[in-house]
Specification:
Layout lengths: L2 H6 L5 H9 L13 H19 L1 H14 L3 H15 L1 H4 L4 H14 L6 H12 L2 H4 L3 H14 L9 H7 L1 H22 L3
Helix pairs in contact: 2-3, 3-12, 4-5, 4-12, 5-10, 5-12
Length: 193
Amino acid sequence: MNYLAHAALSGEKEEILIGNFIADFVRGSQIGLYSDDIKQGIYLHRKIDMFADTHPYCKASSQLLQPNLGKYASVVVDVFYDHFLAVHWEKFNTQNLGDFAQKTYQILENHKEILPEKPQRILPYMQKQNWFLGYADIANIRHALMRLAQRAKYANNIAQATDLLEKYYHELEHHFLAFFPDIQAYVESEMPK
């Protein structure tokens, strides 16, 4: 799952959203620097990733892309699933995607001082380019994947992955639409009461 899905699965508590947003940038003992609710968001992010990595439809999507993308297939699936979430937003959420995006960016902006350095650097671009709304447009997905390809540690074909999205669009969309209600139900069961 990528930024949009993690934000959408964070519920109403601002600190859980913050933790979910920064989780990939918090290592080891750094977690002790944060409040209990932010820690819950960090742990929720990791549970979401683990659930997705083992879900049959996510695995099927990764296997579809693996011959071309190798070890980066699951990373690209995360981006593709954010595309499908943006496209099908109204199926899974009552709040308008544009309003949700602006509210989320504002929450993150309001707490910018507690974000690790890398999320602090990402946030202005996310806001200015309105990533959440942009995920619905394949041209923006192509741009995001080109950035990802440049940052990847190993040689890769990530920049060409949008061709795979177009080639397998309906199959990947089917996987996402079958998967997302399951992750929503899982997160609901994991949220603190």
